[in-house]
From TrEMBL, chains A, B:
This is Threonine dehydrogenase-like Zn-dependent dehydrogenase. The keyword Zinc applies. Pfam families: ADH_N, ADH_zinc_N. Residues 178-305 form the Alcohol dehydrogenase-like C-terminal domain. Its cofactor is Zn(2+). It comes from Salinibacterium amurskyense. Belongs to the zinc-containing alcohol dehydrogenase family. Residues 26-135 form the Alcohol dehydrogenase-like N-terminal domain. InterPro entries: ADH-like_C (IPR013149), ADH-like_N (IPR013154), ADH_Zn_CS (IPR002328), GroES-like_sf (IPR011032), NAD(P)-bd_dom_sf (IPR036291). Keywords: Metal-binding, Oxidoreductase, Zinc. GO terms for molecular function: oxidoreductase activity; zinc ion binding.
Amino acid sequence: MRATYIYGAGDVRVITAPDPKLIESTDAVVRITRACVCGSDLHPFHSMPADADARPIGHEFIGVVEELGKDVATLKVGDFVIAPFAYSDGTCEFCLEGLQTSCIHGGYWGNGGITGGQAEAVRVPFADGTLVKVPGTVDESQYAGLLTLSDVYATGWHAAYKARIAPGQTVTVIGDGAVGLLAVLSAKQMGAERIILMGRHKARTDLGIHFGATDVVAERGEEGIALVRELTGGSGSHAVLEAVGFMPAYEQALGVVRAGGVISRVGVPQYENAPVGRGSLFGKNVGLVGGVAPARAYIEQLLPAVLDGTVNPGLVFDQTVKLEQTPDGYTAMDERTALKVMVDPT
Amino acid sequence: MRATYIYGAGDVRVITAPDPKLIESTDAVVRITRACVCGSDLHPFHSMPADADARPIGHEFIGVVEELGKDVATLKVGDFVIAPFAYSDGTCEFCLEGLQTSCIHGGYWGNGGITGGQAEAVRVPFADGTLVKVPGTVDESQYAGLLTLSDVYATGWHAAYKARIAPGQTVTVIGDGAVGLLAVLSAKQMGAERIILMGRHKARTDLGIHFGATDVVAERGEEGIALVRELTGGSGSHAVLEAVGFMPAYEQALGVVRAGGVISRVGVPQYENAPVGRGSLFGKNVGLVGGVAPARAYIEQLLPAVLDGTVNPGLVFDQTVKLEQTPDGYTAMDERTALKVMVDPT
């Protein structure tokens, strides 16, 4: 089959790789219908050392079950499925608690002998635990929405869910990438009254307004903080959803959060140490929550409104490439000429 | 009147100070029945520069209303009252949300012209907002329990409350000071099934067992972490209540917390930066909550069980000194010959 591998910073190639095969009796092989490029794929695209081993890449995909191990109980060949960005056994104590990203036997696509999602097909471990079957017949117009459940919508939802957003609250979302925009949508669904989106790419923040943002603050740093505080009567935001991962975004979150409020992070932190003492979190009783989103925990819950068109998270896709053009998709996202690129391997 | 002032590290004196008087129409003057020395009083006792201005000290007290400003509506002269360790107006948006430590007009005893609690009397700003009247007749045997509501019990409760401890959970408490021990009691009241107390002073951990600890781990650092993980089947603790405030306690919390769990801090952090990235909080979806406890928010709720003897948080007091001996109380707590010292200014 054809599959995308990363060889080093700036070096993504579509190569011929072995066809995926069943290994464990709990495996499935899934023929991929659509995949996509993630903001987090840009981290190795920026920084992977040239002497590191090439590895398969891509962790978001939807597709059709092609083969099933004999112990897979809940799926049939031909089922249309959504894969979350981590696989998980579905039975360990963490999976049962809805924290599938901490599954004792779980892992991530493209690691440990599991191939990636930007490919024609993939072997899926623990198919019963990992995959979510989409009921009924799936129309091509639904692909974009379904694909967001693999990661970006589920991750935006995780940010809002962990912040325990309550109706009437003021929420500030930092970051106008796909996750930030879908955190806006999630906050709106949870009843946030005011949603301030901090971002400076107009096409993106316009989409954020479509998803429910009531205010846009393009300024950053102290200037942005001052504007958000002004919008919130000086007190700051009950919840801050941080969908970037760089230290300035964390500092911005500290600046705009209300005493007693919460900062919920889903942008993978590109730092390890950060201010959390009396002058930042402790003195104001600000909570710090979030983490790697257990997308699997949310897919069934979010699926109906995507299928019936109540919400349209698929609007975050603004470009589609064929599998062979996947490297162009990386470049487009890196240069911000695309918000989010869909990959069509069919 | 006689009042305790701190002049520098190791230098606490009881001096003659002006009698407190009503200044604002919302003030009360309270004649102090009992006060006490707090673990946090030891911070300036260790580190206050000799050239700093002497200041009144003590922030925990119970007493009797002696004078009232004309705009105080809810209290009468002669009422027996509990003062939380911060005063607050009771009417601002933060007070109404139960975060009185962020009161817009509030502050702390011993600062900004307000005298301290280790004294014969004190002027109380915003008496309606700040003070909680104890119903009925108060017996001297109840003083210890009531006095813990001023800070240590309310602070232990805050740790457990912010961690949202649910019945059946495993909770680890770090620190066997008065706050840690009362965090054990609070976790027990909230239904924690297993409560692991990390502390190494046997008299204190024995009291922790009395309050509900099911296990005691005296070891610290990596060894202590390994023991707690063993006690929790390798997975760690749902909630960690950190009642120390030094970095090793934070690191211990990171080591024993379960994926998806929460670290709730009430020990005032003696650091500003700490690990919060992918390798510590983010990767495991661990939340970091807590802060300066709004004791005022909890006093009414905790009072009935203290009055009727259902709980006996006053057991944390193991020494009483007259006001003139307050400096000895500091020394006893500093040298750990006392767990918590009550001050009797009557």
